[in-house]
Amino acid sequence: MFELTNTNSDMLSFFVSLGAKTELINDVTHIKSYTFLDKEVYSLNNGVALKFMNTSSIIELKGNDSLDFLHRISTNSMKNLDKEEIKKTIFTSEKGRIIGVSTVMNFESYILLVTGIYSKQKTMSWINKYIIGDDVKLSDASHRFNLFEVVGPQSESFLSLFVGDALNSITDNSFKVVSADGVLFFLAKLIDENGLQKFWILAEQENGKKLVSTMVENKGPFDFNLIGEDAYNVYKIENGIPSDPSELNDFYNPHEAKIINLVDFKKGCYIGQEVIARLDTYDKVQKHLVRLCFPEPIETNEKFTLLDEERNEVGVVTSMAYSPKIKKNIALGYLKRSLAVQGTKVIAQNETKSMEVMVNEIPFKK
Fold first, then answer.
1. Do residues 255 and 345 both lie within one domain?
2. Range of the domain at 148
3. pLDDT band for position 1 (50/70/90)?
4. E-strand spans in the chain?
5. Residues 96, 275: Cα–Cα separation, whole Å
6. pTM above threshold 0.70
């Protein structure tokens, strides 16, 4: 019913003209990089980085019941979400497993859900399944908008060069229409999983191109770079941020993924509520998401199972990257709860190698 597609070839060609190196992975075109990994990671951590979010999808909900409907079927409270306000929520199965994690943007006359491209089909099918007698119309709006993320400690100062004082009128987790040299777009200010500020730009195609070109040509004294998936993956792993499809999928629940902050335990029923509440009440969570550090060089596409000292299987590695900062491979993975603590050592093993890896605990988000 719903196709797995990402942004059209014209926009991708535009970024290729700016140096993007692309790769087709599971029928989705990924922008892997533009320059060098260490340079792009540096901008993420110390300067300002712009990422074309073409591995995200945008779902539109229209109709008078849309907000109330979202409130009923997802984990977070949506009932009092104001116009131009933003909030994240999770769609979970009857077993409390993750269908998809979405960022909800309230435009009043319609609602946009920004979700991972790999969970788009499941999320849309899941939502559609529960539209029974509700005034809610569901559609894929990915073709209407282009989404860009601006992140890094210099981001706010950098964006103020283009939109001026309009930036000050946007409160945390909200968005407004702004203009930069006559180019109109939606600018969102968000607080990420670690309490750090980041920005989203939502623009129609031609306006998006003009805006990106202006930023590239007028970066001034800022450590500005376009970044690809390789650098962004390093950033996510270093900061313990789970993503679709590796960590956020229907093998795991919000407790295990450490995104339980996106569950409102006061709001009442939603799909999967009983299971998630029971896990919380009776402290029955079996595994937790952790960061891992590998002592030896490995390929980032290698698959590893995690074993305890008796060689019992106790977890799995889900994402991996090379960190220029520590000059080692780092990873995210799910590990048996009793072992998912800072400094624990477990064995990472695949068909060709075995090595001891260090566990770095991810704190729960508040």
1. no
2. 1-284
3. very low
4. 21-25, 28-33, 48-52, 56-62, 86-92, 98-106, 111-116, 137-140, 146-151, 174-180, 183-191, 197-203, 224-226, 287-294, 305-307, 313-323, 328-336, 345-349, 354-361
5. 6
6. yes
The tally of domains found in the chain comes to 2
Other C-beta atoms lying within 10 Å of the C-beta of residue 281: 9
Least Cα distance to 32 among 235, 227, 229 occurs for: 229
The span from the CA of 354 to the CA of 86, in Å, is 44
Residue 6 pLDDT more than 70? no
- How many whole angstroms separate alpha carbon 309 and alpha carbon 314? 10
Q: What percentage of residues in the chain have a pLDDT greater than 70?
A: 97
Does 199 lie in the same domain as 267? yes
Domain termination site, one of 262, 284, 306: 284
In this structure, the number of other CB atoms found within 10 A of the CB of residue 204 comes to 13
Does 266 share its domain with 290? no
**C-alpha span between 71 and 84 (Å, rounded):** 17
pLDDT at 366 over 80: no
Which are the contacts of 208, defined by CB distance < 8 A and separation ≥ 6?
11, 146, 148, 185, 201
Query: If you count DSSP H runs as helices and E runs as strands, how many of each does the chain have, helices first?
Result: 9, 19
Instruction: Write out pLDDT tens, residues 151-170.
Output: 999 999 999 999 999 999 99
Query: Across the strands, what pairs with 50?
Result: 150, 226
Q: Using an 8 Å Cβ cutoff, are 325 and 41 in contact? A: yes
Phi first, then psi: give them for residue 286, nearest 5 degrees: -95, -30
Q: Which residues lie below 8 Å from residue 299, measured CB to CB, with a gap of 6+? A: none
Same domain, 24 and 147: yes
> Are the C-beta atoms of residues 146 and 52 closer than 8 Å to each other?
yes
Q: Which of 261, 332, 315, 268 is nearest to 101 (CA)?
A: 261
DSSP 8-class letter at 117: G
When comparing pLDDT for 155 and 299, which is higher?
Answer: 155
Cα separation of 25 and 102, whole Å?
22
